[in-house]
Amino acid sequence: MNLLNEIYRTSLILLTDLYQLTMAYSLWKNKATQKEAVFHAYFRKTPFNSGYAISCGLSTIIDYLQNFRFEESDLAYLQELEGNDGSPLFESGFIDYLRTMEFDCDIDAIPEGTPVFPNQPLLRVKGPLLQCMILETAILNIINFQTLIATKAARIKEAAKDDLVLEFGLRRAQGIDGSISASKAAYIGGCDATSNVLAGKLFGIPVKGTHAHSWVMAHDNETEAFEAYAQAQPNNCTLLVDTYDTIEGVKHAIKIGLDLKQKGHRLAGIRLDSGDLAFLSIEARKLLDEAGLTDTTIVASNDLDEYLISSLKNEQDAAITVWGVGTRLATAHDQPALGGVYKLGCIRSSPTQEWLPKIKLSEQMIKVSIPGMQQVRRYTYDDGQYMADMIYNELQPLSKSSCIIDPNNAFRNKKISEETPYEDLLHPIFRNGKLVYQSPSIQESRERTKQELQKLHKGIKRLSNPHSYPVGLEENLHHLRVELIKVEGI
Amino acid sequence: MNLLNEIYRTSLILLTDLYQLTMAYSLWKNKATQKEAVFHAYFRKTPFNSGYAISCGLSTIIDYLQNFRFEESDLAYLQELEGNDGSPLFESGFIDYLRTMEFDCDIDAIPEGTPVFPNQPLLRVKGPLLQCMILETAILNIINFQTLIATKAARIKEAAKDDLVLEFGLRRAQGIDGSISASKAAYIGGCDATSNVLAGKLFGIPVKGTHAHSWVMAHDNETEAFEAYAQAQPNNCTLLVDTYDTIEGVKHAIKIGLDLKQKGHRLAGIRLDSGDLAFLSIEARKLLDEAGLTDTTIVASNDLDEYLISSLKNEQDAAITVWGVGTRLATAHDQPALGGVYKLGCIRSSPTQEWLPKIKLSEQMIKVSIPGMQQVRRYTYDDGQYMADMIYNELQPLSKSSCIIDPNNAFRNKKISEETPYEDLLHPIFRNGKLVYQSPSIQESRERTKQELQKLHKGIKRLSNPHSYPVGLEENLHHLRVELIKVEGI
User: Fold this and answer.
1) With an 8 Å Cβ cutoff, are B231 and A30 in contact?
2) What is the percent of chain B where pLDDT is above 90?
3) CB nearest to B7's CB, from A10, A23, A236
4) Calpha distance A298→A296 (Å, rounded)
5) Which residues of B touch A488 (CB under 8 A)?
6) Taking residues A292-296, what's their average pLDDT?
7) Which of A217, B144, B194, B216 qualifies as a FRET site for A395, CA 20 to 30 Å off?
């Protein structure tokens, strides 16, 4: 399925910062379109102080890149742009260059649903510098947001354990695609269903829902509203019980539940959307059980997140088994942006030249980039549990020591014995602009998240103050970086 | 221009919560499709503790509603959905009903670019309850996000005063439309330009940019990189000076600037993206001025928001006159969701019946809804400055007292003398499903924001602890609400 083609049938190649196009133009003017580069997209800090993040966004990026071409309306728009003296920003020769430009980069990426950590490339682009620039912004936009939400969802699912988590964020999400991409990423991260029907249609995510307060208000009283709903949908009946008085609402719902039972159906659930969720759920459970409605579940919603769910389950013994999570998931409310960056690793003046490694310095060590053409090797224990990740440079031989060095602190390093099993995480996605990767289904990506998270030590999955997973530079890459810092620092 | 048609050529009618459709189905099953309702979309608290918000999103909502119909693929998807016993969620008769359903609501709304306040309807929907339900979620999604961002932008522009503000948020925005809608709303709120080229193309927003660190890294040294850029774009040359050493970077840029000057061009600006922006900008200004480059501006970026800009300008005397604002604007980082709601005001069982006012109770007074079919009247002083807003019910006569009563505290009220000039804010947008409103251009909406904000007392525009603008209920509406609280509370 090609989502972007389906949702956005306009070309998305202009979904980029203007400076990418002015830099591309400057390359063209300087006759440097042969220049090639390797860029890596990565983040420096996990969101939410989480011990891990969940990679997400690749399938959307694939759709975007498969439509990476300028349409005539794009070119006409670019031709209208003016510089500060009123002359055209771009010469028509450049417009012609863009018209016939064909995407021919190599892209390697970590599959969706993989636990990932700071400093490691989630995606690597190798190809004409001019193209590497134009596609930077859209790739960051997609990967930053979807990785952020998949991570949030994984944390919420971790807190909810075996309970169902429903994503209800559409009405507060950041725009139309903010909601659709959030539903997708939340599902990959571990949510069980969404309320967003369009996301259900586009991705095959299960859709779930109850009813609104307005349903009750639109009837003469609560019982009448419940009856009307149950009669219409005996096979999908979860009643919202807090429009007026919650405990009274539960009692009204129980009447309906007994009635449904008699007719061979069942009251699937009741929903609490306000008040003291622990107290009310415990009381409601008692009333439901006493009435024999033991298979009616209790759904809760109302500004939930991983911390509140964990507290309700572990400290307050709430009788809730289905969690409707909206705003705080779909907007990643406590940290609404992942600061992923896209940095140059090496460059060459033409495809026949040698690669030259490159570094970006900063007064903050965390902002000093990593040079080279990077790959990530994940070492595992014999039982499959993750041990450590090594970032290495494909342009250098590997050191025999098998020692990895913390990129932010050279004093911290870790030896890895030679026979340790491993897997390289970056997979070939495009070669010379042609797709060579078979995208897994969204269900497979979701399953991957679940399986892979089981290989992560539980200390790393802790919601607060998690243990930090070791990610280091291969020794020769470390030395290369130190060397470049010296050279550029002079 | 029809944005949604252009960006999203798939039908968006399924951009709704499943429960809207199951409620619609229940109405149909209960033969209650004749029921009519009035709903109001409003927020209870301004975002960012701001003294005001800026309404935004209406033009997108108009596009959405002009395409409010089920396509065959939507219906096929709905027909596949199953209830918890595996039977179809929707009978085929309902699918047929949806197939021929025609949008025929009346919509009234406050134009984009208007300062708005808690509790007042930004948009009112009147029509078949079934349709009012289906369109709720998309309307909230659009209005919540765009109003949030327009408000953030207005605050940032307020802090920046006459300086230029450029929106650079695309790479960190929440999804593709999260960025496009953010660019649009930021422009309406007061930003001067965006880096997002697609938003520029779609909306005619001016596009601006400089160049990236990677441009410098991709050359042998900074001077060479600057020369290459300036040579290619003498009419659009703003140089990023902090890739290695900022002050050295400024000196390299000055060389280029002098060269451009000699050739009859000019160095438009330099950009600082890290470090102590106050110190560096003051030093850079000195160096530029000493070199005679007095018309080269200093652009700053790096996690800016209204507070930082205000501090840099007012407390630190930074020599910055162009502000590039990204993540914190495009995601409304300190409060990434506006909690706008959509509540039932009145109902009738068919178009020929009397309207019945409705209320939603809550233990928190702020969450008790306002009944009726509401309109907002804005009173002004003789010089045009805003005085107070009155929410009144079009189904009740107005009291002669002209007294407005705070909806959250009946002790607070304000008399308004009879001859006070006023304007009603909700304008007719759709009548019986037909568009009757001529949308202003985005430039006109941006100008409206600017003009209208000048009518707001500066205490209300203060960034922190603003003065609160009086919004009250008309006296008869207040009495109706008190009456309904008594009745429903029993």
Assistant:
1) yes
2) 92
3) A10
4) 7
5) 244
6) 98
7) B216
B3-150+337-489, what's its fold?
Answer: nicotinate phosphoribosyltransferase (3.20.140)
In single-letter form, the type of residue at position A155 comes to R
pLDDT band for position B5 (50/70/90)?
Answer: very low
In chain A, the residue whose alpha carbon lies closest to the alpha carbon of B173 is A141
Report domain extents, chain A: 3-149+338-396+424-460, 155-330
Encode pLDDT of B226-235 as tens digits: 999 999 999 9
Determine the Cα–Cα distance for residues B125 and B128; give it in Å rounded to an integer: 9
Report the gap between the CA of B374 and the closest CA in chain A (Å). 17
Report the residue of chain A nearest B232, measured CA to CA: A26
CATH number, domain B154-330? 3.20.20.70
CB B358 within 8 A of CB B439: no
Q: Do B10 and A12 touch (CB under 8 A)?
A: no
Residues of A in contact with B273 (CB under 8 A): none
| Cα–Cα distance, B289 to B286 (Å, whole number) | 5
Cβ-defined contact of B178 to A23 (cutoff 8 Å)? no
Determine the pLDDT at residue A11: 74
Give mean pLDDT, residues A362-377. 91
pLDDT at B440 over 50: yes
A286: closest CA of chain B, how far (Å) = 23
Q: What mean pLDDT value characterizes chain B?
A: 95
The per-residue pLDDT for range B233-248, each reduced to its tens digit, is: 999 999 999 998 999 9
Cα of A229 to nearest chain B Cα, Å = 6
Q: Give the model confidence (pLDDT) of A330-355 as tens digits.
A: 999 999 999 999 999 999 999 999 99
Contacts of B23 in chain A (CB under 8 A): 211-212, 215, 229
Cross-chain Cβ contact B137/A198 below 8 Å = no
Residue B40, SS3? strand
Q: Is the pLDDT of residue B404 over 50?
A: yes
CA closest to A29 among chain B residues: B232
CA distance B340 to B118: 10
What pLDDT sits at residue B9?
A: 53
Give yes or no for residue A8 having a pLDDT over 80: no
Nearest CA to CA, how far is A287 from chain B (Å)? 22
Identify the pLDDT of residue A94: 98
Nearest-by-Cβ selection for B23 from A215, A331, A340 = A215
Of A18, A217, A275, the CB nearest to B358: A217
Contact B200 A73 (CB under 8 A): no
Q: What is the pLDDT of residue A1?
A: 32
> How far apart (Å, rounded) are the C-alpha atoms in residues A21 and A6?
26
Give the strands of the sheet with B269-272, arranged side by side: B193-194, B164-167, B322-325, B297-300, B269-272, B238-240
| Nearest chain A residue (CA) to B275 | A363
Average pLDDT estimate for A86-115: 97
Closest CA to B12 of B52, B51, B65: B65
Spell out the long-range contacts of B409-417 with Cβ–Cβ below 8 A and sequence spacing 24 or more.
Answer: B409/B365, B410/B478, B410/B482, B412/B472, B413/B472, B414/B388, B414/B470, B414/B472, B416/B379, B416/B387, B416/B388, B416/B390
Name the architecture of domain A3-149+338-396+424-460.
Answer: Alpha-Beta Barrel (3.20)
> What pLDDT was estimated at residue B10?
61
Facing residue for B26 by CB, picked from A23, A177, A228? A228
Distance from CA of A416 to the nearest CA of B (A): 33
CB B306 within 8 A of CB B158: yes
What is the layout of strands, in order, in the sheet containing B427-431? B356-357, B341-348, B36-42, B123-128, B106-109, B427-431, B434-435
**Architecture of the domain made up of A155-330:** Alpha-Beta Barrel (3.20)
